[in-house]
């Protein structure tokens, strides 16, 4: 039973999906207005299911890459635990269509469009079009997280607020240093799979410097909502999480290795969690 649950969790990348759903709820929180409780629940589920469909499609398409990487070689499509065939493509399509349709009916067409675009950018733009072609893959593909924020904001009001747009921008800037840190830790994997992640293209030392510069830009941008109505709780969350991420990015820049890269990766998760939680608390007061 435990093995089956783990396989489902891994296939649909549910941990990532939960984070993305959380960003959608943050989009709801920072948008002036109100949304019925059941609609908030439905929004969270719609974003989670659409994200899960994109995660499964990513693994379906990347079976040939995953088999060459130690981190991914035990995924179910690689091991044969799940049969790689049209059945799973149908499941993925039904999941995406169902989540978008539910958002259209229960929320509005603008929110539903952003739900769709989040999955589309991860599954098609990032996975199919960009990942094997350019180191910019995660930069452009990072829009997937931004669309989740906009889906939440648009569910409250299709006329997007300044706070929601800035928060979406923060998610866009957060994704590259977050993922590039992981890419340094798994440099050999990406090199073996011939995936042009930034550290593979420019080397770990230069990638670490770029991560630091990206983190500086991210943290500076994360403080902007204070000038658009967010209060001291948001400021403390954004500033403390940002300072921690900056500290770890400096350590990575000074000593780019697997340990500091993973530490920086986890710091990025801490930074985002603090920022989103503080934004939701601040907006509720």
Radius of gyration: 19 Å
Main sheet record: none
Cα(first) to Cα(last) distance is 43 Å
Would you tell me which CATH topology applies?
Tetracycline Repressor, domain 2
Please count the beta strands (DSSP E, at least 2 residues each): 0
The CATH homologous superfamily is called UbiA prenyltransferase
Number of domains: 1
Per the principal axes of the C-alpha atoms, what is the gross shape? flat
DSSP helix count?
15
CATH C-level: Mainly Alpha
- Order of helical and strand elements: HHHHHHHHHHHHHHH
Q: Helix proportion of residues, in percent?
A: over 70%
Spans of 5+ residues with little confidence (pLDDT < 50)?
Answer: none
Question: Would you write up a description of this structure?
Answer:
The protein has helices at 2-12, 14-29, 37-61, 63-66, 76-79, 86-106, 109-130, 137-141, 143-156, 162-185, 187-192, 198-202, 204-222, 232-254, 258-284. The chain is flat. Helix 3 (37-61) runs antiparallel to helix 6 (86-106). The chain has a single domain (2-284), classed as Orthogonal Bundle (Tetracycline Repressor, domain 2). The longest helix has 27 residues, at 258-284. The chain is an all-alpha fold.
Layout of helices and strands:
Elements: H1 2-12, H2 14-29, H3 37-61, H4 63-66, H5 76-79, H6 86-106, H7 109-130, H8 137-141, H9 143-156, H10 162-185, H11 187-192, H12 198-202, H13 204-222, H14 232-254, H15 258-284
Helix pairs in contact: 2-3, 2-9, 2-15, 3-6, 3-7, 3-9, 6-7, 7-9, 9-10, 10-13, 10-15, 13-14, 14-15
